[in-house]
Amino acid sequence: MALRSSTVDISTSDGTADCYLTAPEGKGHHPAVLLYMDAFGLRPRLEEMAQRIAGEGYVVLVPNVFYRSGRAPLIDTDFIRNEDRGELFKTLGPLMKRLTPERAMRDADAYLDYLDAHDEVSEAPMGTVGYCMGGALALRTAAHRPERIGAVATFHGARLATDAPDSPHLLVDRLRAEVYVASADKDQGMPPEQQQRLDEALTEARVRHVCEQYDGAAHGFTMADTGAYDEAATDRHWAALLDLFARNLR
Questions:
Q1: d(CA 11, CA 15)
Q2: Looking at the predicted structure, is the pLDDT value of residue 86 above 80?
Q3: How far is it, in rounded angstroms, from Cα 120 to Cα 23?
Q4: In 10 A of CB 246, how many CB atoms?
C-alpha cells in the first residue's frame, strides 16, 4: 500500500510537539493509531514501524513526547547499539522524569484531538501502542480517554504494575479497550511479580486482555537499531498487534 508521510507540529498546553504522521495514500477514511516511542525517541526505526501499521490501513501518529526539551532527535542515536548506555541515560533520565503522568495525559488529549480533526481519520475506535517507556503512556491514554480507545498494546513495557500510588495498573478499571501486554524475559523493569499483578488487575476489572512473556527476548526486542533486537520476537509482536487492531478498530 502506498503511504504518505510527513512531520507535523501539534499544539499542546505546554508548547508544540513535533510528530511523525503516516497514512495510506489517496482519499478515504481510516482508523487512527497513536504510537508511543521508547526512551531513545522519534527516529527512523519508529517511522518504519509506524509505516508497517499504516500499510494495514491506519493513520498513525508518533509524537516526540520529549518535545518540551527540543525537537527530535535529542540524542545521537548512533550510540544506542552500545552495550553500555549509561551516558545516554544521564541525558534521558531527566527527560523521562519531566514527563509526569499529568503532563503526558494533557499531551494525549492534544494528540487524540488532532487525529479526531484529521480529514482522513474515521469515527472507528482508535488504537494506541507503546514500546518500553511508551507502554505506560499507552495504558494511561486508554484509561484517560476510554470512550475513544478500542485497543491498547504494550511491548517490553516497564514499571506497569509497581507499588507506586500512580502505577498504571491502578487505572485498568477505567478501560473499555482490549489489552495486549508482551513482556520481555528477565526484564528488570517488568519482573514476573509485576506481570502477575497487572494480569490480576485486568482480570478483576473484567478487561479483555492477554498478558504474555516472550521467553528468551530482551528488553527492547522490537528495536532493530539496538543490540536488543530479536527478529522472531518482533515477528510475533507484529502478528499479535495487527490482529488486535483488526479485531477492534473497524
A1: 6
A2: no
A3: 8
A4: 14
Phi, psi of 213 (to 5 degrees): -110, 130
pLDDT at 84 over 60: no
CA 103 from chain centre, in angstroms, equals: 16
CATH code: domain of residue 184: 3.40.50.1820
* Cβ(128)–Cβ(152) below 8 Å: yes
- Compute the distance between CA of residue 202 and CA of residue 171 in angstroms, rounded to an integer: 10
Indicate the pairing of strand 126-131 with strand 32-36: parallel
pLDDT of residue 89: 78
CA distance 78 to 87: 13
Name the grid cell of 62.
508518533
In this prediction, residue 85 carries a pLDDT of: 61
Over range 185-189, report the average pLDDT: 91
Contact (Cβ atoms closer than 8 angstroms) between residue 177 and residue 185 = no
47, 216, 225 from 231: Cα distances, Å = 18, 12, 12
Whole-prediction pTM: 0.96
Q: Report the alpha-carbon distance of residue 13 to residue 177 in Å, rounded.
A: 26
Q: Which residues have a Cβ under 8 Å from the Cβ of 92 and sit 6 or more positions away?
A: 39, 40, 75
The amino acid at 68: R
What whole-number distance in Å separates Cα of residue 224 and Cα of residue 106? Answer: 30
- Do the Cβ atoms of 128 and 141 come closer than 8 Å? yes
Total number of domains in the chain = 1
Nearest CA to 241 among 158, 115, 128, 134? 128
Please give the residue range of the domain that contains residue 227.
3-248
